[in-house]
Amino acid sequence: MFCQKDRTKELEGLDGKRQRMMQQLGLYLRRQADGVGRYLWEQTMQLLVGWVPTLLGIGLRGVLYRTMLNMRGWAAIERNVRLRFANHIQLGAGAYVDEGVYIHACPPGGVTIGERTIVMHGAILHVYNFRDLPNAGIEIGSDSLVGEYSVIRGQGGVKLGNRVYTSPMTQLIAVNHVFDDPQRPFVEQGITAQGIVVEDDVWLGAAAIVTDGVRIGQGAVVAAGAVVTQDVPAHTVVGGVPARVLREIRPGDAALRSTRGPIYF
Predict the structure, then answer these.
(1) Catalytic residue positions?
(2) Bridge partners of 210?
(3) Is the pTM of this model over 0.70?
């Protein structure tokens, strides 16, 4: 009798473990693709040609990856680029995605990379929308550049204009944790996600950080290592922690070129 009870408990324990395993597997798949079929197709494509080097690999991916993501014209994708929710990725004509880039394009907004925009080695573009946030997404305009090992997190939505350059190791994080209650762990207090907007012709220096809720005006320059917590006026240079306006960029500043040595175009 006791053996039968022990056997019943053992079977119930196995059923519970199996159920938990299936729940974890389902959660994993929901965070990788729109469904099991999409996941298998996207993974198969990347397994077959994602590793192929040189121009041969770029050509194969330029043809075959059209079956899983949206390309407007021809775009170049180097080897070992990791793509998730690929049907929510849109690449403009002439876009270039370097080796080791990770693009996780959760809906609804997904990830849009404009014409002739370059995403450099090791960059991470992660929408990270696992809470059904309405404005989540990443949109990058034309002729822009995302520097090496830069991170863009798009829970609240990140919009970069045309000719925006982010230098290596910059971070744009469109989310914040709430931590007002000292009696509760911050992970139980929720998040805010207001979004980040970077207007046209902005240059972000190396390792600059832009926090949630910030708008950077057209033609602004953010110094290396700055932490931007407030809006940046157009045509200003900001720097420091937290960032503050260091000077305005005026038409007469072109005279400063003579003090900088040769200028190349």
Answers:
(1) 177
(2) 172, 228
(3) yes
